[in-house]
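To close the section, here is one more complete example, presented without commentary so you can practise reading it yourself. The ligand is coenzyme A.
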Amino acid sequence: MTITLHTWSTSDKPALMSMCNAVDRTFLSDRLPYPYTEVDADWWLGMVVENDGKEGIWRSIWADSELVGSISVERNSDEQRNVGSIGYMILTPFWAQGIGTEAVRQICGIAFQELALDRIIGQVFPENVASVRVLEKNGFRLEETVVEKVIKSGMARDVKLYRKDNFF
Ligand SMILES: CC(C)(COP(=O)(O)OP(=O)(O)OC[C@H]1O[C@@H](n2cnc3c(N)ncnc32)[C@H](O)[C@@H]1OP(=O)(O)O)[C@@H](O)C(=O)NCCC(=O)NCCS
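Output:
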């Protein structure tokens, strides 16, 4: 199986909608709309085309000829503009095949180079062991666990903050 990252295009809209409506949301931010409508997809694809390479790197994840996920590194705002935040999701039938680990490896290289970042951070719920492993296997190290940092489904949840520095 070959894992590749592709820039998003408007022709991906049906696959984007279908993925965002099907993805396991247990550990995802409540910011991802549900149900994920055509209006949501149009707004997001427009935002990505306008900002890619400047305010972030957004890519679809492909396993051979199939779109199986989404991954991004978004530049933080203001005085943290030298830092990017990573996020990713993969459709459940494609879990545990090394796709997440490989996608994170690829996007970190692109983001460090194209956005000239000093650091990429990852914010993970402690229970999300697969995501923790994906980051650890890509050289992210645990910075701290922040208590009650994020509201999810109405509850304040702890998060682990991971970081990867640009040594080049
Ligand atoms: C997190 C996610 C991207 C991992 O992707 P993936 O392609 O399954 O990851 P990999 O196949 O590269 O596996 C990485 C590690 O996680 C482990 N893993 C994968 N799925 C797992 C699961 N459901 N439970 C426990 N461990 C799991 C793998 O065994 C591997 O660990 P190892 O190297 O110690 O054997 C995927 O589970 C996902 O999209 N989850 C929903 C969205 C999400 O949580 N996004 C991240 C928010 S921070």
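Once you have examined the tokens, check your reading against these statements. The two ends are 30 Å apart (CA to CA). The first helix runs from residue 13 to 22.
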